[in-house]
Amino acid sequence: MSRRVSAGWAVATAVAVCGLALLVLGGGGVRLSLAGVALALGAGASYAGYTVATARALDEGAEPAVTAAVSFCVAGLVLLPALALTDLRWVGSASGLAMVAYLALVPTVLAYRMFTVGLRGIAPATASTLALAEPVVATVLGVAVLGERLGALGWAGAALVLAGLALAGHDALSRHEERVPA
Questions:
Q1: I need a surface site. Which of 85, 116, 164, 167 has the fewest CB within 10 A?
Q2: % of the chain surpassing 70 pLDDT
């Protein structure tokens, strides 16, 4: 699988990232923190690194489940010192244990297992761009379920993110069709 990105991917990603910026700024009353922006950029770079490393391991024959398990064990070890600074009393309650079980099984094990399997058929760059759907889904759920408000700028940003994702999907399909003989 090629690690080169296409011009179509670059345009799609630029559109989606601009939309993401509008989505964040369109939330109303948003105060940006330099430390928060730096942490978000670091998280994004880590996610991209995880995606590329996982795709490379899969290309070399690694099993998706093993790849995901090793990645999360390493991440757990890196975060272990944070336990010393965290109040974990809530975990001892029934609702705390239920939350830990849910977070471990659904958004971690199940979601990353599906993501890792999906990396067998899609370029890591495209997968990373398509993952930008997550903030749009979270925003829509916040508005629909929690009653949060989103201004016109935020809705325009969500639309741009979705347009960027559509462009990325179209680009991925067109590049796939170029490689597959008719």
A1: 85
A2: 92
* Dihedral sign of CA atoms 36, 134, 177, 171 in order: negative
3-state secondary structure of 149: coil
- 172, 123 Cβ separation under 8 angstroms: yes
The single residue listed with the structure tokens 């070890």 is: 77
Cα–Cα distance, 96 to 80 (Å, whole number): 19
Query: Which of these, 130, 123, 128, lies nearest to 161 by C-alpha position?
Result: 130
Is the confidence at residue 170, as pLDDT, over 70? Answer: yes
The tokens of 1 are what? Answer: 């699988």
Quote the radius of gyration of the chain (alpha carbons, Å). Answer: 19
pTM of the model: 0.72
The stretch 49-61 carries a mean pLDDT of 88
Rounded Cα distance, 102 and 104, in Å: 5
Tokens describing residue 13: 């990603």
Q: Where are the beta strands (DSSP E) in the chain?
A: none
The residue among 139, 180, 174 whose CA lies nearest residue 8 is: 174
Contact 22, 142 (CB under 8 A): no
pLDDT above 50 (res 61) = yes
Whole-number Å distance between alpha carbons of 114 and 59? 16
Residues written for the chain = 182
